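Hey, I'm writing a tutorial for new members on how sequence and structure tokens pair up, and I'd like a real worked example in the thread rather than a made-up one. If someone can provide the structure for the chain below, I'll link this post from the tutorial.
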Amino acid sequence: MGNDPGDSNKKEPSKLVAANGAKANTKPTKTTTSPKDDAPKPDQKDVQVAGDEAVSQAVDIKTNRDLNLALEKERRCSSKWKHQLQIVKEELLKKIEEEERGNSDVNKSEKEAKETQEWKEKYNQTNAKLLEIQASRAILSAEVSKLQHALHREVGDHIPISKVLEEGGDWKGRSQQICILKDKIADLKSKLQKQSANVVEHNHNDNFDSAQKREYEQISAKFLACREDLKNTRQKLSAILARRNVLENELKVAKEKMSLLVGKSDNDDRLIAALRLELEAQRQGQGPTLYGQKVGGPLSLDLVQRQHRLAASFQELKRHCYQQELQIQAQAELIEYLRAIASSQHEEEVMKDNSYDVVNGTSELSMTSKSSLLSQFDPKELLELQ
């Protein structure tokens, strides 16, 4: 950068001020006398010199002031130029930085272009490899589907492939299964040839035993029906016996109540008779005495009312006794009816047991059929039925 013009302006006024100061300092040295020291009056030359010096000092002061003003003006201009210079410097630095940044951006763009080119090449290589892998995968998937189809045809659809692939499993191939089945067929043929004669004889025996089998089935059905009827009859009989016991207990209680009512009615009859006698005695003036005096009037009325109450209670007891007798009679008839039903059912059971014994005696079953018949039922039930 060049020299600042403001600096030169600053230097020049300072030189002028120094020169003026030197003149001012040198001029008073010529007139060092004062009026106190010099008693005689000064000369005209001295006065003229002093006036010249004063004029010169005034001129110097004026010039100094002008120079100071010029200096201040120059300072302002220099500060303004400094500010503008600073702005220019900043703009220049910004331009330099922008140029450097532009150069760096260019370098960066070139670098990015190179990297982009490299990545494009890598992408193309990877894409080519991917296409190759996809082609090989398609070929392998086609081969796998063919092998699976062949394996399904060999193994069968009912057996999963995972079971075939397991090690140590009990799976057998189709050829092994065919060999095993062939051996089984040969064994079965030999057994069939050996058992052909036995089968013919067995069929003949089956035809011979068909009639006995039908008879056995009929007898077993009748036996089951009879056993069910017997079970139902026993249940009914047990219910009837329980009902009879309940009714007998009720009849016993009713008889006890009846005996109590009869005894009470007898007591009431005797009491009524005594009251009648007492009333008759009162009517004839022969009533009872109280403290040696006969009782009459209101006592007779009380006795009449008591007699009426006793008569009403007696009638109520009679009606209650009549109802109890009717209930006892109905319960007795019901008990007799239940006893008749129980006896008839017992006779029916005896007749069924006898008929079953007759059927067992007349049937001509074989020993095998009888044993099979008895094996179907509980021996305890058979003993109970007998």
